[in-house]
Amino acid sequence: MQTVETLNEGLKRAYTVTITSKDIDARVDKEVKAIAPQVRMPGFRAGKVPANLVKKMHGESLQRDALNNSIQESIQKLIADQKLRPAMQPSVELDEGFEFGKDAEIKVALEVLPDIAAPSVEGLKLERLTVEVADAQIDEAAGRIATQQGALEEHAASHKAKDGDTLKIDFVGKVDGEAFEGGSAEGVNLKIGAGQFIPGFEEQLTGVKKGEEKTIEVTFPEDYGAEHLAGKAATFDITVQAILNGDKPKLDDEFAKSLGLEGLDKLKELLKGQIEQEHNGLTRTHMKRKLLDQLAAAHDFDVPPSMVEAEFNQIWQQLQHEATHEEDPAAAIAEMEAEKEDYRAIAVRRVRLGLLLSEIGQANGVIVNDQEMNRLIMQAAQQYGPQDRERFVQYVRQDPMAAAQLRAPLYEDKVVDFLFDKAEVTDRAVSREELEAAIEAEDGDVKPHVHGPNCGHDHHDEKPKAKKAATKKAAEPAADAEAVAEEAPAKPKKAAAKKAAPAEAEAEAPAAEEAAAEEKPKKKAAPKKAAAKAE
Question: If 196 and its partner were Cys, which of 57, 326, 459, 503 is the partner (CB 3.0–4.6 Å)?
Fold first, then answer.
C-alpha cells in the first residue's frame, strides 16, 4: 500500500492510497483455497475441484470481496499510521478507471478532531439558586389531587347541564358527512367550562339533559395537531348518557387513607419530596447553563465543519417542524431564514462544547461503567413491546454507535457533576418564579452533544433546543395522584384509577431538568378518545 497526502488544511485531510493488484490477487487466491473444499462440481470428487475452476466459477464475487476488504483495511491502516482522529466517517472514492488486474487507486477525504489543550478545571465559580418549598405550595398541590379525586354523583334526569357539570357522552365526529378516524368514542367525561375540547364544543352542550341527542357544529383550529383535521369544519353527533356533579373531598386523614397512605402528614411529605425534586431539576439546569457559558468563554478552537453541518441540520429540522405549528407558519419560517447564521453559530458552540466536555471527561477518568450501561439499556428497552425488547438489547450490545448514543447523555451528566464538584459554588435563595425567569432569560443556550468514548458522531436521534425555541414555563408543582399512590404501602391501583383528565395532567406536568428532557425520545401520544380534544 502506498499513501500520498494531498491535503492538510486546518482540520481537513486528504490522501491518495494505492493498493497493488498483487495484494488483491493474493487475497483472491487465499479465499479460493479456503472455499475449494466446499465446492461441488460434476466429474470431481468433493474437495478436489481445481483452484483455476473454482476461480472461474466464483472469481468475480471473490475479486469484489477482496477489493472491498483491501480498501477497508487500507483505510484503517491509514488512520493508524497517520495517527488520525476522524470526526466523521471518511469519504472514500475508487478511481473511475479501475479494472481488476490493475492497481486500485482510492481517494480518502476526512475531517479530524482538533487537538485540544488540556482544559483547566480549576477556578470555576457557580451560583446555585435554591428554592424552599412553602407550605402553601404543598397545600395547593394537595388541593389539586383532591380535585382530581373528586367524587362524581349523577344529577336527576330533569337537570339541565350548566357550567361546571361533567357530562358522560357518546359521540361520532364527521367531516364532509364522513366519520373520521379517532373521531368517535363512548362514555367520555367532559366538564363544561374546563376547555378540554376544541373551541365551541363544550359551550353547545349547555342546557342538555340526560338521554338527549344533539348534533353540534365546530371548526378545528388551524394549528390542530392532526394536520388532516386542522382548519376543517366538522359535526359531532352526541348522545348524553348522564350529567354528573363533582364535589371536592375534604383534605384530612381519611382522604389521605383513600390514596393508600397513613394520613395527611404522609401525603404532604410525599408532595414536598415531589416539589423539591422539581426545584432541584430547575436548579441543576440553571447551574449547567452557567457552567457551559464559562467553558465556552474560556476555550476557542476550530471544529470540524461536517460536525457543525450535522448539528445545524438537526437544529434547523426541529425549527421547521415547530414552525408548522405556529399561527403563521410562513412568518415563522421567514424569521428563521433571517436568523439562519445565528443558528449556525449555535451549532458551532454546541459542537465545541461537546468536544470540550469529552476531553475533560477522558482526561479525568470519567467513565460509564458496565453496570450503569446495563441499566441504561434496560431502561431504554422498556419503551418497546415485550417481543421487541430482547432484539433492542442485542442491537445495542452489538452496535458500538448505538451504544455510544445511549451512553452519551449519562456520560455528559457525569462530566458535568465532576465539574460541579470542582467548582466554587455559592448558594442564593430565590423564589420559583425567579429561578424560572433566570432559565428563560438564557433560552438561547443549546445543549451540547458530548463526543465521548466510542462516539459515532451520529446526531440523528438528538433533539436540540434551538436559540429561538420557546421554553415552556414550568407550571405549578405537580400534584400527581398516581405518583403519590406509588409511594403508598397499600391500594396504589385505586388511586391511579382516578387520574386527572389528560388536559389537566398535561397542564400540571412537573418541570424536568432540561438535559434529561431533551434526551428522552418522544413517544407517540396514545389516540385520544375524543378527537376534538385540544392539544
Answer: 503
Q: Report the C-alpha gap between 402 and 95 in whole angstroms.
A: 32
3-class DSSP state of 35: helix
Helix, coil or strand: residue 331: helix
Number of C-beta neighbours around residue 230 at 10 A: 14
User: What span, in angstroms and rounded, lies between the C-alpha atoms of 410 and 408?
Assistant: 6
Residue 343 C-alpha cell reads as 443558528
> What is the chain's mean pLDDT, rounded?
79
> Grid coordinates standing for 218?
365546530
Give the Cα separation of 190 and 196 in Å (integer). 7
- pLDDT 10s digits, 121-156: 888 999 999 999 999 899 888 888 877 766 667 888
Q: Distance (Å, rounded) from C-alpha 444 to C-alpha 453? A: 28
**Each residue's pLDDT tens digit, 220-232:** 998 887 778 888 9
Cβ proximity of 166 and 189 under 8 Å: yes
Which residues, 6+ apart, have CB-to-CB distance to 111 below 8 Å?
Answer: 11, 12, 13, 86, 87, 88, 304, 305, 306, 307
- Grid cell, residue 44, equals 470431481
